[in-house]
Structures are given as C-alpha cells and as structure tokens.
Amino acid sequence: MQQQQNQGMQNQQGYMQQPPNVLSGKDELYLTDMLTWNLLAAKKAHFYAQHCQIEAMRAEAEKVGQMHQRHYEKILGHLSAHENQNAQQYMQQ
Question: Where in this protein does the record put region Disordered (predicted)?
Fold first, then answer.
C-alpha cells in the first residue's frame, strides 16, 4: 500500500521546466572557482607569450589568453545580469 502511494507521488512530480532564479552557496563557490581558473589561465598565457621566442607560439599563446579572458568576461556578464534581475524583482515587491 505504501509503495503504491510512493509510486503515485513520483509520477505526479514532474521535472522543472526552468531552473529557479536562485544561486545557492555551492553555485556561487563554483562560479568563483571558474572565474579564478579563467583569470589565472589568461595571465599565464599572456606571461608565456611575452617570454616566448618563437613568433607562432607567441601568437597562439596570445589567442589562448584572449579566449580565457572572453570566458572570464562572459561569466562575469551572466552574474551581473542575474544580479540586476534579482534587484529588479526585489524593487517590484
């Protein structure tokens, strides 16, 4: 009898169509790590490019550094958009 009720509840519970507009503490820590990784990778690639003797290697290192910088800025942009959205929702209440 109890198993039938549990199965019925599982079938009634659907999947979320869209994630909630909340960042958990764990989410924030992971995003901070992602920002740190990309910033460090960009700095290392730039340093390597400055000290590289081979022009082709220097150009590739610069491209890698720019890629990581774009990723850093993109993550930061998503966080800023999320923060602005939450502030607007708070002001409407």
Answer: 1-22
